[in-house]
Amino acid sequence: QAGGSDSVVRLGSWLIGGMAKGAAAAAAALEGAEASLAELVDLEDYYFGPDKDQKKKNAAETAVACADTALTCVEKPTSATSSKANCIKGRALSYLVGQERLAEELLSKALKLDPQMVSAWNALGEVYWNQQNYAQARSSFEQALELCGPNAVSLRNLSMVLRAIECEDLEKSNNFAAGLQRAKEATVLDASDPQNWETLGNAYMGEFFVNGKRYEELNKALIAYARAESAYEKLGKRNPFLHLNRGEAAKFLEDYDLALKSYAIAKEIGAAKGGDEYDKVSELVKRLAGMVERKGDLKAKRLKDLTAGLPAGTCTLAQLRSKESGGKSVGARVVSILDRKDEIPVVLSCCDADGEFFALSIYNAEQAKVADSVVPMQSALEISMPHYRQISATIKGVEVSYPCMRVAHPGDVAIVGHGTLASAAVKAAFSSEKAAG
After folding, report:
1. What is the C-alpha to C-alpha distance for residues 201 and 96, in angstroms, rounded to an integer?
2. How many CA atoms within 13 Å lie on the side-chain side of 398?
3. Other residues' Cβ atoms within 10 Å of the Cβ of residue 254
4. In angstroms, rounded to a whole number, what is the distance separating the alpha carbons of residues 208 and 222?
């Protein structure tokens, strides 16, 4: 990260030598400005030390000073020099809190001189984004694509903006679908940029939550995040937000081992939230494993009563596990409902006719509606099309596991004598996340 400083030293030597005049001097000054801007971008994206703000301020001031030198070391700077210098100044100031208005003015000035300067359009869009002026941000990125042609940065930024705009439900649904498409296009144009893959992963997450897609959509998010991590590694960089987002996707899929690893890396890089999420997932896994192992702390007679009277013609967990269910539904009794507020999925503790305990994970369901429909220690269930998994996670060197049955929709679960849980289906959660893309 010394590139900017080295360029300033070279520029200073030029000035001292009395040669800082003319086009060559302007070019040298712009070189120093670009180096300091690159340092600033790197600090913004990948540095998380306590002195981050001061380092950013120093790099921004150096970039602005070099750009100003490029404008003053010739009597009349060329249009190309003026547009480039103003763009660099605008981009540098856009990273400093409170300088958004000046950054906007400088970037607009650069675009008046050169309407096809894609970096200025993208930077201007990001200024509007940071001000939560999403309509203007969208316009800037669309202008970049219209005037400068397809480019990955504009496409991924447009994907983010489309998913942030507050609007009516139908428009929001369409925006999220369009945002996913833009993110895909960005990875096609530049598959080596990790931010393109990270944005694609976030877009798949949006499709899952906003447009009510099946949980398989989250597998696509994990694939995109894996591509992003690989691309970051090739650059020698790490981004905590990637690992936080991947941890969320893995958690929703109940891949708790991957979630824990992702949160641990996020914390290691500098995101305190990673540690908090690690603790929450650890507690959940240990709680579920303990509940299964201890059979809900029920006495033998109580457990015998629970397993009696389950629907005839259903199979047990053991038969499902050994693939001997013959396509039958699994019969079970609800023992308890985990209080997870709005977390996905809804999880019930159940036991089958053999007295074997397991976690039942219901996707696309509202916790409150499920809780209103089932009565712990009473409700008997018929679980159709269940997907069996033995969930395992390593928590601080200790492997913890428990059996789990997953259903994709509450309509796949019937309460004996009362119909299915279809009425507990969640509606599309029309909300957007303003994370790292």
Report:
1. 28
2. 6
3. 24
4. 12
- Burial string for 425-435 (b: 16+ CB within 10 Å, else e) reads bbebebebbee
Q: 10 vs 3, 6, 42, 89, 222, CA distance in Å?
A: 11, 6, 21, 20, 45
Burial class (CB in 10 A: 0-12, 13-18, 19+), 86: buried
Residue type present at position 26: A
Q: What tokens were used for 154?
A: 């504009």
Give the Cα separation of 404 and 401 in Å (integer): 9
Question: Can you tell me the distance from the alpha carbon of 376 to that of 272, in angstroms, rounded to the nearest whole number?
Answer: 37
Mean pLDDT by 10 residues, the chain (437 residues): 47 45 86 96 91 95 95 90 97 95 97 97 96 96 97 97 89 93 98 97 90 78 97 94 95 95 94 94 94 89 89 89 86 92 89 94 91 93 92 93 93 92 72 37
> Considering only CA atoms, which of 288, 318, 315, 324 is closest in space to residue 401?
288
Angle in degrees, CA 256, 258, 263, rounded to 5: 90
